[in-house]
Design brief:
heterodimer; A: 270 residues; alpha+beta; 9-stranded mixed barrel; 5 helices; 9 strands; B: alpha+beta; Lipocalin; 9-stranded antiparallel β-sheet; 20% helix; globular
């Protein structure tokens, strides 16, 4: 009799656990991030993508680099597509422009000139970036070109004007930081393969912790002038876990000057 | 047996509880932090961040009429009286040119812009709330004289540069090249100039300082780490911070010899102190030390005022037509000289 009641208690408890577990899988991701002092998922840290998305968002095989004298050092590494459904849904005219961009990559890619990278490219450039989280806003500092943006976590505000890094309003959805990015200029690209957008670009980013040292980064890209429908990229971001890891100065303007102004030197032979 | 069953039941109950708690957002999570009592007098203590550090956050401007160095005629007078300051302020706001005020870009003689569009509403110009006669503190109120070796070093550099100013982009000032704008250089020395908005965002173990001009961002660790190895020299040096009471102290070394601050060398050692003294006031104090340039360290104190944003994106390099225009002009001039010579 006593055993029976114990069994009853256990089975009730077990079914509650089972129910909660089912609800849990339906509503919340499997991983729950540690919290900041004000109770938000803690995304603070230095993060970096570990893929070849900056070479080409779409799947690509290895290829020869643009500078023969660099040999294998600056060849194109192969990589799988980070685009959901593998292909970017260009409108016909835009598909032609993308091809032209790709053929003139070194001449046209803003990264070659050390221009601000825009969103989402800033996230998967082969350089780290740091998330600094406060109650009112979240700052993202990127090593590349010292790019930066401040994400407003209060009531959404309107951009004072278009900019290279866009205007970011954020909010939390459970474990996920959702950032709505608008007012982006048309001058940035998505990668070194000529994938591009117009000034109608609207990006919605989702940063979701998936373990202590990884995040899932997703970005939904919408641009009616260039794409036939919204499309999505997705990739893990990894924590730079080295001791005393830090963003270092990468003022790449200096490395683009010869390319941009070298022909105007007094002695342009150099 | 029964003991074991009880343990299992207790464990299950605990799991249920934890699972339920996980599903419930932490109480008060969405509520704004409790408002702090308004500041009164000197007993004002700054609010704290969620993790208990002095809260320096917000958008600040370091715009001030107070000149960097003290006008000679003031001698050792370090502070103005209330009356003197009120008089100077009203005269500066009327557009009078004063030795006591550094009008910077708001100088009507130097008008390049519609001043109000660029944030120079003259009626809002102000002197330092500290009532100091110069931003540099102490009886001298000026940068100490440069050591002979430093004068020589700087003269040598200038001589090398002379006559080659337009040879290449490398000969142009760092600000023209969008490598380092004057206002983003550290220490930050303002004047009534454009591009003096600063935004501070604090996260656990870091204070970030975003200077509107050229989106210059310093991410300063406050976790007690040492400086980067001396072999690594950086345009803006290597900064590490720590808290002393209500003050953020930032120590910077590892400069290059290319960013000479008022003629300094790569031996420059900078200590900056950020202290909020009122809801809308931050005192930014810095001490410059470089035994290869000055016989003794010197200190300046710049009051910052809280202001409204937004902080705009300042994309300097992306829109830089200056370097190519200047160099192209120089090449045309070269050609003309050559033609005349023939």
């Amino acid at each position: 009799m006593r055993n029976q009641s114990r069994i009853a208690v256990i089975s009730v408890a077990a079914s509650i656990v089972f129910l909660v577990a089912i609800l849990g899988t339906a509503q919340a991701p499997a991983y729950r991030a540690p919290r900041t002092a004000d109770g938000k998922p803690n995304l603070n840290g230095i993060w970096q993508a570990l893929n070849t998305a900056n070479w080409n968002l779409e799947g690509h095989t290895a290829g020869k680099g643009p500078v023969a004298s660099l040999g294998a050092v600056f060849s194109v590494p192969p990589g799988l597509s980070v685009v959901e459904g593998d292909e970017i849904p260009y409108l016909p005219a835009a598909a032609a422009k993308k091809k032209e961009n790709q053929a003139n990559w070194v001449k046209l890619d803003p990264e070659v000139k050390c221009y601000l990278p825009g969103v989402p490219r800033a996230t998967y450039l082969p350089y780290p970036f740091q998330i600094v989280q406060s109650q009112r806003n979240i700052l993202m500092a990127y090593e590349y070109a010292g790019a930066v943006r401040t994400i407003n976590m209060g009531a959404p505000t309107k951009a004072p004007g278009d900019s290279w890094m866009g205007w970011s309003n954020g909010h939390w959805e459970g474990e996920t930081l959702v950032v709505d990015v608008t007012s982006l200029m048309e001058d940035t690209w998505f990668d070194r393969a000529g994938n591009f957008h117009s000034d109608a670009l609207h990006v919605v980013e989702r940063y979701t912790p998936r373990s202590a040292d990884t995040l899932t980064y997703e970005a939904t890209i919408e641009d009616k002038k260039v794409f036939s429908r919204p499309w999505k990229i997705s990739m893990p971001l990894y924590r730079r876990a080295e001791k005393n890891a830090k963003l270092l100065e990468y003022k790449c303007v200096e490395f683009a000057e010869e390319l941009m102004y070298g022909h105007l030197r007094k002695n342009p032979s150099k | 047996m029964s003991h074991r069953l009880l343990t299992v039941a207790a464990a299950l109950a605990a799991v249920v509880l934890v699972a339920l708690l996980v599903q419930t957002p932490a109480a008060g999570q969405n509520q704004p932090p409790a408002a702090k009592a308004p500041a009164v007098g000197k007993a004002w203590t700054p609010p704290r961040t969620a993790d208990g550090k002095p809260d320096l956050q917000g958008i600040w401007t370091d715009n001030t009429l107070t000149p960097f160095e003290r006008p000679k005629k003031l001698g050792t007078k370090e502070f103005y009286t209330e009356e003197e300051l009120a008089d100077l302020t009203s005269r500066a706001r009327k557009g009078e040119k004063l030795e006591e005020a550094d009008l910077g870009a708001a100088n009507p003689q130097a008008v390049r812009y519609d001043l109000e569009v660029y944030g120079f509403d003259r009626t809002k110009l102000r002197f330092a709330s500290t009532k100091r006669t110069s931003l540099i503190v102490g009886p001298e109120g000026v940068v100490p004289p440069m050591l002979p070796q430093a004068k020589e070093r700087n003269a040598e550099r200038a001589a090398k540069e002379k006559g080659h100013e337009f040879d290449s982009y490398e000969n142009r000032p760092l600000s023209e090249r969008c490598l380092l704008m004057n206002q983003e250089r550290i220490p930050m020395t303002p004047g009534a100039n454009e591009g003096n908005l600063l935004q501070i965002v604090q996260g656990p173990g870091y204070v970030t300082l975003l200077h509107e001009i050229d989106h210059s961002t310093r991410v300063i660790p406050t976790d007690g780490r040492p400086h980067a190895p001396q072999s690594m020299r950086l345009w803006q040096g290597d900064s590490v911070g720590h808290w002393e009471g209500n003050t953020l102290v930032v120590d910077t070394t590892n400069f290059t010899n290319l960013t000479a601050y008022r003629g300094s060398s790569e031996k420059l050692h900078l200590v900056e102190r950020f202290t909020r003294t009122a809801e809308d006031t931050m005192i930014y104090e810095f001490t410059v030390e470089d035994p290869t340039t000055w016989a003794k360290p010197w200190t300046a104190e710049v009051p910052w005022t809280k202001t409204k944003g937004p902080v705009f994106e300042w994309a300097c390099h992306e829109g830089n037509t200056m370097i190519s225009t200047i160099l192209r002009g120089a090449r045309v001039a070269d050609e003309e000289v050559q033609k005349k010579g023939k």
